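Weekly puzzle thread! Below is a chain. First person to post its structure in token form gets bragging rights.
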Amino acid sequence: MKKNLIFLLGLLFSQLNAQTLFDAERYSNSTIQGSARFAAMGGAFGAVGGDFSAIEINPAASSIFGFSEVGVSLNSIQLKNTTTYFNGVEEDNGNDLSLNQAGIVLVLNEEAGGDWTKLSFAFNYNKTANYDNNFSAIGVNPNRGIDQYFLFYAQGKYLNDISRLDGETFNTAYVDIGDFSGYPAQQALFGYEGFVINPIPLAGTTDPTNPDIRSYNTNTQAGASGYTHEYFKTSSGRTNKYTINLSGVYQDKLYLGFSFNTFNVEYRETSHFYEYGYGPQSGISQLDFTNELITLGTANSFQLGAIYKATPQLRLGLSLESPTYYRLSDQIGQSLNTVVRTENEDLDLNLNPSASGIYTFLPGYQFNSPGSVRGSLAYIINDIGLISFDYSIKAHNRAKFTPENDDYFIALNNQIEDNFQTNQRLQIGGEFRLNPQISLRAGYSTESSSRIAFDNSQSIISGGLGYNFGASNLDIALQLQDLSTQQALFSDGLTDRLQLDQDNLNLVLTYRLKL
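Winning reply:
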């Protein structure tokens, strides 16, 4: 196992990686979450302003406020996932209740005249991503099984570097191999010690234990229709965004703003993969592979924004958001259970380092999600209401893992360029005042696919109402979100995709108080 120590130490920092395209997609996407008024109008607030969540998309929005305010929002979401995997269709449901937004804005009006007539300072908390979700997929895969995953990591590696030493326990080998060879070799260790793959003896020999073996084949055989798969995935956590904002009004026409954002990230995921239905010549009759991932981190970004009052009714908005610079670390726990066929009886083999508290801690890394550009238009219809439009673009193929001179990240960044594309989001919102107290709102948002190989576009229909008490406001919104995407079971080897269709119902309640 340690015969290639010098070589492996040379590759240490390029091999201790487990990041994938899934991570790039997770931290590059954004959702329309925030206050109830913002959600009800489809997030089309880039030129409207005057709302806490509007500050999140255009920093000039805080100087639209007429008074200092505090606001807080609660969010309840009902999840419905429909998963299709070959011949199987599954449905799963879930729900979540959380604090979605909280903020304060302080408005300073200049009474003595001058070009700058107003300054606003704001602090806002916004939950930009909610990872609480669960889904299942069951079907018969006619193409490949989990053996392809373990073969992907094993091929080319010396048998002595992916197997236990004499008298060594599996857990000790798992830690030792992880320290010297990294995450990929640990996956190969699971495959070999779990009897999912077999070593191929060197040419001219019949010894399957020669430490110089570097080629492997499968120890499984598909059933008559293929491999039966059951996949269950649960995730939790969120990305929280904290915004410090400053904006001002120049000559009563031009609103300018700047925001600095900090984020904290917590993502937890557990996946259970079951494979069975093997043929009579298969060396195993059942397999259970479990993976746990915990990602923690922080991030920073900044925004510049402007709103121009072309006429008393027409407003134009423009905002630029920098890339978000993440600093992340991953912790991985794994276990593999196989039922091995022998001449006398089946042997239940349980390889479970995580049960003993053994986790793989990967080196910290950085990820830069792409920035975005947003153009906005709003038309104010006297005291009756308004209609607004936002259009934004984001180049998802420009996301980067760093350091960029790392061999693993070079390959992964090339995959990002090949698999992602620039997408567009169009948002439309409207508000109609029935009377000075009651307002009706509606909105629509559509976002094109950020993936090239498949369609992961989404749309949101929303509506709501608000009641003005004079010194305070109570707003409520409903969102219906339709999202379709595809996910591979594993990033390598067993890469067949499942189709995931999500229909989510989101209820937002906001209370705002003038100071």
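Puzzle host: Confirmed. Bonus trivia for everyone else. Residues 5-514 form a domain with the Porin fold (CATH 2.40.160.60).
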